[in-house]
Amino acid sequence: MKAHDGMYIDGTWRPAAGRDVIEVVNPADEQVIGQVPAGDARDVDTAVRAARAALPGWAATPPAERAARLAALRDLLVARAGEIAETVTAELGSPPKLSQTVHVGAPIAVAGSYAELAAAHAFEERVGNSTVYQEPIGVVGAITPWNYPLHQIVAKVAPALAAGCTVVLKPAEDTPLTAQAFAEAVHEAGVPAGVFNLVTGLGPVAGQALAEHPGVDLVSFTGSTAVGRKIAAIAGAAVKKVALELGGKSANVILPSADLARAVNVGVANVMSNSGQTCSAWTRMLVHRDQYDEAVALAAAAAAKYGDRIGPLVNAKQQARVRGYIEKGVAEGARLVAGGPEAPRERGYFVSPTVFADVTPGMTIAQEEIFGPVLSILAYQDEEDALRIANGTVYGLAGAVWAGDEAEAVAFARRMETGQVDINGGRFNPLAPFGGYKQSGVGRELGVHGLAEYLQTKSLQF
Ligand code: NAD
Prior knowledge:
- The protein is an alpha/beta fold.
- The chain folds into 2 domains: 6-246 and 439-461, Aldehyde Dehydrogenase, Chain A, domain 1; 251-429, Aldehyde Dehydrogenase, Chain A, domain 2 (3-Layer(aba) Sandwich), CATH 3.40.309.10.
- Helices cover 42% and strands 20% of the residues.
- The strands form 5 sheets. The chain has a 7-stranded mixed beta sheet, sandwiched between helices.
- β3 (21-26) and β4 form a beta hairpin.
- The longest helix has 25 residues, at 96-120.
- The N and C termini lie far apart (58 Å).
- The structure holds nicotinamide-adenine-dinucleotide.
């Protein structure tokens, strides 16, 4: 696995200011596969200065030229798809097919969508006697998590570049090699020096320095609600814009008229995919009490089929955390019908696909984000009860509704306090806005709504 021993700043790979390094571990076999520099506030400062210096030129670059660079970037991600997918598998542990189709496939679609949006977007409009301009917000500090390492980067960098902003990226410490591969593609795509910069490092060191840097105009963060709260406080004190994509505890609501077997099977697959490390995963399945036993049996059978096909969790800490939640579920009286807290293999950070029945809305496993392959099945009495349970957490990122009639599902979805809902298994749309209600975040990513996060408006009156 290729690892750079420098930071990508101002168009070149240059040595870090300090000597600290981060070891990258393959979570499937616990072997060290490379190391990258652990940057500090000095590296962040150099990168922010480079981004500031590049800002006027990139902001003034015609949108069609910015679009051409993004199209070149998309093409390079396509050309390097195999190599990047192998890198994601090596540092995240995801099965190779998932790495190819989702971890690399989705960001290619998103990069392509921003190449098109940059070319087509109306950055200027007439409103009565005014002209309103949409101008880049400035230097973006982007901080990303490891769960979809390339997607989380592209979902920030592509719209930022389309808008005319410049970027300093601080990727997750568990998956820095994917970020380095992305920086290589940006370089080859002919994006001018300083427009995109990469500083690898620890969250509380490099991440915090980036959030605090006065030269950053917008902090765009994806990660846990706990860290998001800190970043929002830092940005608030500096009256700086902030975009937050945070945690979730999404409900998969199966109404009595739905195709129960399909809804349960797709629901289990949704939670087990990426070993449950998906912020929008439908980790709470809500089933009518009359169909409850049948749904539990279907879900247990579906989870058992996953067996060895599921990848590990990203690191030992995450594995311990998830096993702890499973133990807590048992202690609070939920009934295990698949999996359990035991580690299924001696090596690697694996957790068994786990399903809990008899979960009640107040239990810890029904309230807190677990971020592992753990599904909770809850019974509801009627639709009002289902809605109360679905909306009964601090989160509101995603969800699903299943019903025999689409209009019935839509009516229920409209009452859910959540940012996106899949109707009867609706597919991922790279143009649909993605983001949270309540404590799941502030702002939206993807499509034109994602572009808007990186723009500010100026009006001229005539
Ligand atoms: P995390 O919050 O620990 O880390 C996310 C990023 O923040 C990493 O790059 C990390 O280095 C950095 N960071 C950590 N402490 C920091 C600090 N004090 N200052 C600045 N930066 C800091 O989250 P994680 O464990 O990497 O990811 C899992 C979490 O991310 C889950 O809660 C999940 O729901 C959430 N997530 C949300 C979305 C979304 O779109 N809403 C998407 C993916 C993941």
